[in-house]
Sequence to fold (169 residues):
Amino acid sequence: MSDTQSIETLKAEVEALKAEKLEELKAQAEQRKQDEEEAELKRQLNDLKAGRIPGETTGAAPSRTEQIKDLDTARVRLWAYGLGAYLTGPIFPGIIAARTKEWMPFWIGLGAGVICLPFAAIDLGFLSSLPATGVAVAAQASKTNKKRQQYAVLMPEQADSKMMKLMDF
Fold:
């Protein structure tokens, strides 16, 4: 056997081994893809069994300052917010917005109050302030309930308790 024939034979063997290895790697990649899909379907099934929306990302745990901000929002007593918004106009909602860093309900209520302002002359503001108060309370209730659900809190007192534990009192 000559050198060129042995080189050609070796090249053919190398090509055959490459093709064989390539097929093996493709099979492994396909198996890995199927395993990942199966694991994802199992996660979705577990989420459904736990009452969560599948694929809903929980993300990384919020930082301590974010937890304090969220619990501050969950602590808002909506009856007091509504009474304060009715009696003081934008003052009490502004205080709550500054404390919770949730300014959208404040701005929504203020906008509704400005729209209702021309009607205040008719009833001295007794009834015309109700739409602004109602809209502001509804917006704050939406934010508050979202944070309460996020932290599995039903009442503001539970949020107070979690806040105290978080702040190491």
Residues 64-166 form one domain. The helical segments are 3-49, 64-74, 78-88, 91-100, 104-116, 120-123, 130-150, 156-166. The chain has a mean pLDDT of 85. The two ends are 88 Å apart (CA to CA).
